[in-house]
Amino acid sequence: MVLTDLEGLRSFCAELSSDQPSPGGGTASAAAGAMAASLLAMVCAITRKSKKHEANWSELDRHKESLLRLRDELTALAHEDARAYDLLVEAMRKRKERKDEESEKLVLLALRHATDIPHTTSKRCMEVLETAERVAEIGSKNAYSDAGVAVLLAEAGLRGALMNVVINAETDKDPAYVEGIRAEVGSLERRAAASARSALAKLGIARGA
């Protein structure tokens, strides 16, 4: 089967490679997570076709349903990330024009929103990674490479999203908020590394520290 919407992929890559800052890394991170969820859903579907794995059919169906939900959420987040950036730029433009307290508040709200979106992306990518650990155990060996790519994409999506979270949060003027974000980022990074390493090990793919 060939890729049916190659033009859609070309269009997306063309937008990423343009001289416009949006869509950018946050959108690409969410897209990576969406592709990871899609690949794992495929692994579930391929495994589900085999009588050899009949004992796990019900669980595979549940994982596939969850992964398709995550795919759709991450696809939406890819769009929302680009939109959040555009809203932030607009808020900053208005602040420059007005130079009043109200416009300053709007920038803060837009900045928090631009931080929340990739933060949510990272959490959804974490869910994909956690699901990958189990799919790696019960999935067909014929799809191990696909599952492995999914793990790497989900981790890349998570780390890319968290990088955007940190960069956006660092400009916030609330020290408590910034410190809270840093703590959450550190926790998610550690969980992601452990989850990815575990999933790859179950697939028989060695990984360094």
Task: List the topology elements.
Blueprint: H1 6-16, H2 25-48, H3 57-98, H4 101-138, H5 144-169, H6 175-202
Helix pairs in contact: 2-3, 2-4, 2-5, 3-4, 4-5, 4-6, 5-6
Task: Describe this structure as you would to a colleague.
- The protein is an all-alpha fold.
- It has a single domain, classed as Formiminotetrahydrofolate cyclodeaminase monomer, up-and-down helical bundle (Four Helix Bundle (Hemerythrin (Met), subunit A)).
- It contains six helices and no strands.
- The model has no long low-confidence stretch (mean pLDDT 93).
CATH architecture name: Up-down Bundle
The residue-averaged pLDDT reads 93
CA radius of gyration = 19 Å
Helix-strand category? mainly alpha
Bulk shape: elongated
CATH class: Mainly Alpha
Helix content: over 70%
Per DSSP E runs of 2 or more residues, the count of β-strands stands at 0
End-to-end CA span: 37 Å
| Total DSSP helices | 6
Secondary-structure element string: HHHHHH
Total tally of structural domains? 1
Report the biggest beta sheet as strand number plus sense, adding barrel if it closes.
none
Outline the low-pLDDT stretches: none
- The CATH homologous superfamily name equals Formiminotetrahydrofolate cyclodeaminase monomer, up-and-down helical bundle
Strand content: under 5%
State the CATH topology: Four Helix Bundle (Hemerythrin (Met), subunit A)
